[in-house]
Specification:
307 residues, alpha/beta, seven-stranded mixed β-sheet, 31% helix, globular
């Protein structure tokens, strides 16, 4: 059964795991059946991981015709009374297309409408289904930050590849914050932060960067971590699957670091650079017309935007 809704709503965005349609970049290297199997294992592990969270939980799915497949999956896992199914609406109903922002905007409005009808908190957190580092505690803390006080209106966890793995919004944040975001790029996190600033979101918490799984190298690094620092994280299906995979040989990896260079904010890739903890800083330009002022968003700090 669902817990109380004092923290608002958790929304997991997921595409149904299907060969040649799920994790295709990985599939090109290890086979599409294996990449789809990984997507399924990750999805199931995370659905179970966040089940104890005391909030309403929504599985925002694509494509539209996969509704019965997701319904059957939840029933098979005994989660049909834990997660509510909500289809993505608008555009081509894909989680990776250029108009993803339109569907996230629509989803935010739909989820808030349901919360309003139930007399519940209207804070919402969005996550994906491929970040195995994201713990239940991480998600709960994001929702707490945007629900319990006026300091933060948004909370975000960047991804190491320049995207983000989680975004929590208070009930005061307009749904337009998903408009104009550059999706599926190395600038997605920066672009989302710019959209938040543009829409007068005055307090933004930036947590630690995490890894989502989009490339074979990500899989290899995850497999290595499963035997060490991720022992306490529940992902048995994914761990068992990865142990059976014979992954291609490693190549030199690159870490994405957000830097400020000659007045132009951008993402820079550099071998051997590691930025973590309180040292990480995201520098986000203000919208046009602010007189050239820039806002520095430091990890774990409040962002007060002056427009």
């Amino acid at each position: 059964a669902r817990g109380d809704t004092d923290l608002g709503t958790l929304v997991m965005v997921a595409k149904y795991p299907t060969p040649k349609k799920s994790k295709t970049r990985i599939g090109k290297k290890i086979g599409f059946d294996k990449s789809a199997a990984f997507a399924r294992a990750s999805l199931l592990d995370l659905l179970h991981r966040y089940t104890p969270l005391d909030t309403r939980k929504v599985l925002l799915y694509a494509p539209l015709e996969a509704g019965s497949l997701f319904s059957n999956l939840l029933e098979q896992e005994g989660l049909q009374h834990v997660w509510d199914l909500e289809p993505m609406t608008g555009g081509d109903n894909d989680t990776t297309s250029s108009d993803l922002g339109d569907r996230l905007k629509c989803a935010l409005e739909t989820v808030r409408l349901t919360a309003r009808k139930q007399g519940s908190v209207e804070s919402v957190a969005f996550i994906g289904y491929d970040c195995l580092e994201l713990t239940l505690g991480d998600v709960r803390n994001l929702l707490l930050r945007v629900t319990e006080g006026p300091e933060y209106q948004a909370a975000i966890l960047p991804a190491n590849d320049g995207g983000y793995v989680a975004l929590a919004l208070s009930q005061d944040v307009p749904s337009t914050v998903f408009e104009g975001v550059e999706w599926s790029s190395e600038s997605t996190c920066i672009s989302q932060l710019q959209a938040l600033a543009r829409d007068n979101v005055s307090g933004i918490y930036i947590g630690k960067s995490m890894s989502d799984i989009d490339e074979v190298e990500d899989l290899r690094q995850l497999k290595a971590r499963l035997g060490s620092d991720m022992k306490s994280i529940s992902c048995q299906r994914t761990a068992a699957l990865l142990l059976s995979f014979d992954l291609p040989k490693a190549i030199d990896s690159k870490k994405v670091v957000i830097v400020h260079n000659n007045g132009n904010d951008k993402l820079k890739q550099s071998n051997g650079i590691t930025v973590s903890g309180e040292q990480e800083e995201l520098l986000v330009p203000q919208p046009a017309g602010d007189g050239g002022r820039r806002n520095s968003l430091s990890q774990g700090k409040t962002n007060t935007v002056g427009l």
